[in-house]
Specification:
Number of helices: 9
Number of domains: 1
Shape: globular
Strand order of the largest sheet: 1-2-3-4-7-8-9
Number of strands: 11
Structural class: alpha/beta
Order of helices and strands: EHEHEHEEEHEHHEHHEHEE
Distance between the termini: 5 Å
């Protein structure tokens, strides 16, 4: 049984519940390691059409206080204070400055932006793209992952093939090619060599692509590389905590995994499932 969920959001960004309510849901699911990973700040210019930046900034200190308090629980649950930091190429100084403001157990890397395009916001952005344009976007995404990993800033790559979110059918064709697999191998090798883990996420099941992040081809490459894994629901509500973790466990075992990892005070720990 998976007992770790390290990807959790709250009402202080664009979630629906308080840290306490999310924690209560974790207790109900029998989780033993529960990591809060609220979204990071982003500089001006890195914007979604509908932003939560000001709301997040106004409540950040409250969020930190509430999660820190939950660390002192007597329920046998290890609560972790993490953050999902957006990787934004060219903004490494901003990223490091933001992370220096608090002591985090771990830093998830969320690649949501290519240059200043938040590519996971709306399907409409993808509808007119041709096959060669899609290929170029996928290649840019995984090249960006290499650059990110080599900074040494991050502990985990979250939802590693989120780039497929609005074009899953063509992504499946692309990932089957030798060239794509060579690129993904380079990206995941950089992740492994940086001492990072890869997230297996149930968020994709709830999205338009209706597929686990990452897909089977990426999982196969990760397994061959012996890349450590962790599990995340990317929950934004209590109903999504540990969402479909039975499916994630079966999926991971098919590729030879029997344990997952988490980071505490920046150090990797493993736990069987």
């Amino acid at each position: 049984m998976i007992s770790i969920d390290t990807h959790i959001h709250t009402k202080y960004s664009h979630g629906k519940a308080t840290p306490q309510e999310m924690y209560n849901a974790a207790l109900e699911k029998g989780l033993k390691v529960f990591g809060f990973s609220e979204h990071s700040a982003r500089p001006s210019g890195m914007d979604y059409p509908r932003e939560y930046r000001e709301h997040l900034a106004a409540h950040w200190d409250i969020y930190i206080e509430q999660v820190t308090a939950l660390k002192n629980n007597n329920d046998g649950v290890t609560v972790l204070l993490g953050i999902e930091m957006d990787w934004m190429e060219g903004n490494e100084e901003f990223i490091r400055a933001e992370l220096a403001k608090n002591s985090y157990d771990y830093v998830l890397c969320g690649i949501h932006f290519l240059e200043n395009w938040g590519f996971d916001y709306t399907k409409a952005d993808w509808e007119s793209l041709k096959d060669d344009e899609l290929t170029a976007i996928y290649e840019k995404y995984f090249n960006t992952m290499v650059t990110m990993a080599r900074t040494g800033i991050f502990n985990t790559i979250a939802h590693p093939d989120i780039i497929k979110i609005f074009s899953c059918s063509y992504f499946s064709q692309w990932i089957a090619t030798k060239e794509a697999q060579q690129l993904v191998t380079e990206a995941l090798t950089a992740v492994r060599d940086a001492g990072m883990s890869m997230e297996i996420s149930s968020a994709g099941i709830r999205k338009l692509c209706q597929e686990i992040y990452p897909c089977e081809t990426v999982m196969g490459i990760a397994s061959k590389l012996e890349l450590p894994i962790t599990f995340g629901s990317d929950a934004h509500s209590t109903m999504s905590v540990a969402y479909s973790f039975d499916k994630l466990e079966e999926y991971a075992r098919r590729f030879g995994y029997t344990e997952s990892v988490y980071f505490r005070n920046g150090k990797m720990h493993s736990r069987p499932f």
